[in-house]
Amino acid sequence: MDSHGFMGFWSDIDADYRLTYQEWHNCEHMPERVGIPGFIEGRRYRALADGPMFFMCYLTQDPGVLSSGPYLAALNRPTPWTKEALTHFRNPERSIYRRVTVMGSVPTHVPYILQMRFNAPATGPEVAARLEAWMARPPAPELRASLYDMDTEASRIMTAERKIYEAGPGQRQYLILVELLDKGPAEQAAEGLKAALGPEVRDLVTTTYWLETRIRSVDVRHPGTASVEDTP
Predict the structure, then answer these.
(1) Which of 21, 104, 169, 179 could disulfide-link to 155, CB 3.0 to 4.6 Å?
(2) What is the 3-state secondary structure (H, E, C) of the chain?
(3) What is the pLDDT of residues 168-204, one digit of tens each?
């Protein structure tokens, strides 16, 4: 099932709560989310170096799923464990995106992602054209690059969960995710993409993450069950 909606959540977690956070996120939170109609997959990543320690994301059939009644109902009915876990988030940032384009091909299981978040005066299609030019000579034979444009209105919806972690959307309009089978090409990919995007790019943040866990809806047409993959 193709995905056109994307929710990204960046955060550090209190050091003494990280194991409990991982248990909550694996065993309660992600299974709950991928059981919502239109959700396809949930993932959690860890930063290799600088950047927020954890990156959590959900892929949905379309962006409207991320402001739908069933999703907002879940956000406004946090479980006791969710209420506890969210108090341990530090420097959180959450944004909702529409996919502009996706290019390239990789196997289902991809252990690394390079992220680039930025602002630019260019439109989404213009940024996509620059990404396409870069993809003509990629730094690895198998990679996939996706460009997302933030849905500011949906990102700003106030919910009971957001009141707990007290953060809103990020200030960067565009997100590029480059999925890689190996972390080696990440630095070369970052340099090449920065050059391809052009000098007018502002507020650029680049981070490489490794996949910690992934939970996928078994059938997005009839959600409610999930399969789990852990990356050691």
Answers:
(1) 169
(2) CCCCEEEEEEEEECHHHHHHHHHHHHHHHHHHHHCCCCEEEEEEEEECCCCCCEEEEEEECCHHHHHCHHHHHHHCCCCHHHHHHHCCEEEEEEEEEEEEEEEECCCCCCCEEEEEEEECCCCHHHHHHHHHHHHCCCCCCCEEEEEEEECHHHHCCCCHHHHHHCCCCCCCCEEEEEEECCCCCHHHHHHHHHHHHCCCCEEEEEEEEEEEEEEEECCCCCCCCEEEEECC
(3) 898 999 999 999 999 999 999 999 999 999 999 999 9
